[in-house]
Amino acid sequence: MAQPDDMLDDEDYPAYTMGRAAEIVGCSPDFLRRLDEAKLFNPYRSGGGHRRYSRYQLRLAARARKMCDDGTDMTSAVRIIILEDQLEEALRQNRSPQTD
Known about the structure:
mainly alpha; Multidrug-efflux Transporter Regulator, Chain: A, Domain 2; DNA-bd_dom_put_sf
């Protein structure tokens, strides 16, 4: 089992309830549900079925909220964020030394 200090440092640990996540991102719970439906992320579900969000997912949601606030429709915002993250990962892999 993960230690509490490890969980605090883990960007993917689902620490935030939907209400708290919406408060942090500055959006409505419905906006977070729609991001889930649009496949930007798949929040963890508690034993009772409640959505729980990680810090990484909150950063994605904040990016999507900003883009939507600036006039981008949600489908386009989600696609742009996914492509930006894929590009960043590919660039990171290209910079790392290749081992065979």
